[in-house]
Amino acid sequence: MRAVSAACLAAASLALSARSEASSPAVDYAVHCQGCHLRDGSETPGRVPALAGSLARFARVPGGRAYLVRVPGVAQSPLDDAALAALLNWVLLRFDPGGVPADFSPYSAEEVGRLRRLPLSDVAGARRRLMDEVSPAPRP
Amino acid sequence: MENPEGRIDRWLERRARLLARRTSRRSFLTRLAAVVLGSAAFPLLPVARAGGTAARAPAPDEAGLKGEAADPTSCQYWRHCAIDGLLCSCCGGTQNACPPGTEMSRVTWIGTCRHPADGKDYIISYNDCCGKSFCGRCQCNRNEGEKPVYVTPKNNDIVWCFGTKSTAYNCSTAIVLGIATEG
What is the pTM (predicted TM-score) of this model? Predict the structure, then answer.
C-alpha cells in the first residue's frame, strides 16, 4: 500500500511529453498532479494525503520548504524549473491560502532547480519527521 | 322529474368551477415546467461520474468526426490516445460513465489528446471503473507518452482502483476535463 501510495504520489501522469504551447499552473496541475490529488486537492484516505487545508504546514517548519520540492512526484516531474516553481506557488495559494505564512516568499526557478537535484532517499522517513515537527506527538 | 342531463351538466359545471378556483394557468405552467426541466436533468442523475460535473469543461463537438476517431468503442477513438485498459463503452457503460454495478475511481491516469477536428489538446481523465471483475472486451493500450516503470511519474502500469470499495478492475472511461492548450 505504501508502494502504491508512493507510486501515486509520483505518478502525476502525462501523455503529451513535448508540449510546445504555453502552459499555466492550472493546466500543469490538471495534467501532472490531479490524477492522484484530485481537482480540489482533497485526500484519498490511506492513499493520497490532502493538499487542501494541509500543505502549507510544511512551509512553516525547517526543511519543509525544501521537502515540497524534493518529494519525488515534484522533483521528478517533467516540468522545467520555472514552471515547477510557478506550480508550487499556485498549489500552495490555491489549496491552503490560510496556512501560508505571512512572510512566505514564493519559490523561484533557481531555488527549485537547486532543491530538486538533491535526492530524497528516505521519503517516508523525511515526511514522518516533518509531520512530528508540524504536530509534535505527545511525549510521556 | 328533473332532466338527468341537467344534473350531469350541473355536476360538470360544479367540478369545472371548483377546478378553476383551486388551480390556475400559472400553476399548470409551473408543473409543466417542472416536468420538462426534470426530464432534461434526469440524465445527470444516477450514474457514477468523476468528481462532480460543476467545474468540468464541456467536451468538444464530436459530430464532425468520422470513422474510428469518432467511435467510442474503438481504440482509435480520439480520446483514447493515452489509454491502457478495457473500454467501458464496450462493457455496458460509456466513455463518460461506468457500467451499472461498478464504482468510478476518483484517482486516475490523466493524459492529453489532440482533437482531430479543432487541433486543440484536451486533458483526458481515464477513470477506472471498479467493483466487478475484468470486463474482457475492447482492450486498448495506446499509452502515448507513457514511459517505462523506472520513470514512475510517467508510467501507467497501475491499477487505479484504489480509494474505491473494491480494487477489482472492470474497465476505463475517457472523460474530457478541459482544454490543455491556451490562446
Answer: 0.72
Q: Are residues B38 and B122 in the same domain?
A: no
| Known catalytic residue at B128 | yes
Q: Which tens digit of pLDDT belongs to each residue from A82-136?
A: 999 999 999 999 999 999 999 999 999 999 999 999 989 999 999 999 999 887 6
In a domain, B61, yes or no: no
Taking an 8 Å cut-off on Cβ atoms, the answer to whether A27 and B180 are in contact is yes
pLDDT tens-digit series, residues B6-49: 888 888 888 888 777 777 766 666 776 776 666 666 545 444 44
Candidates A14, A37, A74: best to mutate against B (most CBs of B within 10 A) is: A14
B182 vs A: CB within 8 A: yes
| Cell numbers describing residue B18 | 371548483
Task: Give the Cα separation of A90 and A97 in Å (integer).
Answer: 10
Which cell goes with B72?
A: 467510442
The number of domains in chain B is 2
Q: Is B181 on the interface with A (CB under 8 A)?
A: yes
Task: Spot the catalytic one: B9, B11, B71, B109.
Answer: B109
Packed helices A81-95 and A25-32: angle between N→C axes, nearest 10 degrees: 90
The DSSP call for residue B47 is S
